[in-house]
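Please describe what follows:
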Amino acid sequence: MDASHAHRHPVFCTVVPPHLLDKAALSADSRRADLAQRTLEHDSMLRTRRRVTAVRGITPGLGAPAADEPRRTIYDAQHRTRLPGKKVRAEGDPVHKDATVNRAYAGLGATYELFLKGFGRRSIDDSGLALDATVHYGEEYNNAFWDGQQMVFGDGDGDLFLDFTVSIDVIGHELTHGVTQYTANLAYLGQSGALNESMSDVFGSLIKQYSLDQTAEEADWLIGAGLLGPNVTGVALRSMKAPGTAYDDDELGKDPQPATMDDYVTTNRDNGGVHINSGIPNHAFYVAATELGGKAWERAGQIWYDTLTGGELASNAKFTDFARLSTAAAAARYGDGGAEHRALQKAWSVVGVPITG
């Protein structure tokens, strides 16, 4: 394994990107602007805290011996920001009266199940790590995040964003940041950061497809469908099928994601555009999965998982590194020149990322 993987530095990862909240913070509607600004300021504080924790070398401990069942605990922050909050549902407990608690519980379970049954992985760390989540975080908090140790969900403001547990792919997205943390440990900056975000979108989408028993052709390939509020012109936070088309709204702006390297965005914001340029590897996965057809987690997902966990993907990897390694992983598992290998070659060609050099 690359030496850069020796120390796990968990990062603070939100599902709603800063560029979207930046736009909302400029709204002429003072309530919308204030809530967006409050979320941005809170996220910035948490991001700094996460970075200090990483510098101090504090990382999540390993879980109990691996098991084939999740160990879920849901907490209620009761609209405060102190974590984890009040324990309200543990593994095996009956359905709770709070639908948000139950959605979080189900989402953790669906994520655990895909990684176990699809890839033989036992929880986030492959060693049975307990899955904790806190709901009702803050007052009208417009985000959800993985803080390096647990999931946290805001309720949204009911205007621009709804309850962040409504989209199972958002839950899977954030938990996959934990999988990346324990495997390739992709640095949250530039292209490696965009790959980090893309891994979460890929497996978040696969978790939704797995839970709905959908084929690649049946899937909507949207991240955060159902999350945008009733006053927003858009369908989701991101589209893997057609990056740049998820929303086009007066308050939130237009989805800035590129689908190919021709439109790669160079920026100093959002750690070098990690939530924007992730559209490129996202689209490559979509092309590969639909080219192969059937259940996307079975072959395309397996290739992405092999690449993420294979030990050769450096923490500072570029798109070309992932393209080369994923194409090699397809050949290693399914044969050189087979349908899977050809699908990977086509996918990276479509998005303009070379697999050599």
